[in-house]
Amino acid sequence: MASVQRVTSTGSDGVNGAMDERKRKRMISNRESARRSRERKQKLLEDYQDEANRLRNENRRLSENIRVREEGFNANEAANGVLRAQTQELTDQLKFLKSIIEKAEREKIPKIPDPQLNPWQMLYPTQTIRASDWFLH
């Protein structure tokens, strides 16, 4: 930039020289200040870009985490649906069996011994087991 010199009517070169020197120093100072301002602005812009990239990466990571958890949730919901259906089936079977027991108790149906419930009781208590029977097998 070319500096424009003003000519004053005082005619004194010393005063004009001092004014020109001050203008020149101010111009240099302003240029340096503008340079620092541009550097700060550039640094701030770079910081914002870095932060934006970091936030994008964090957003991707969180989105993936949410997607995985939603898949797990959906799988658990499906499994819970199966378990609810099985629970309902078992509840219905239990009600049916209870109704049969109630009916048997009302009609005084004799109980049939179940050897699996009492394995230590023999079905035929009058039957004797001989020692020689053990060796036949």
Automatic annotation (TrEMBL):
Residues 1-42 are annotated as: Disordered. One of its GO terms (molecular function) is protein dimerization activity. Residues 20-66 form the BZIP domain. GO terms for cellular component: nucleus. Residues 1-13 have a biased composition (Polar residues). Gene3D superfamilies: 1.20.5.170. Residues 32-42 have a biased composition (Basic and acidic residues). PROSITE patterns: BZIP (PS50217), BZIP_BASIC (PS00036). It is found in: Nucleus. It comes from the Eukaryota. Pfam families: bZIP_1. Keywords: DNA-binding, Nucleus, Transcription, Transcription regulation. This is BZIP domain-containing protein. It comes from Medicago truncatula.
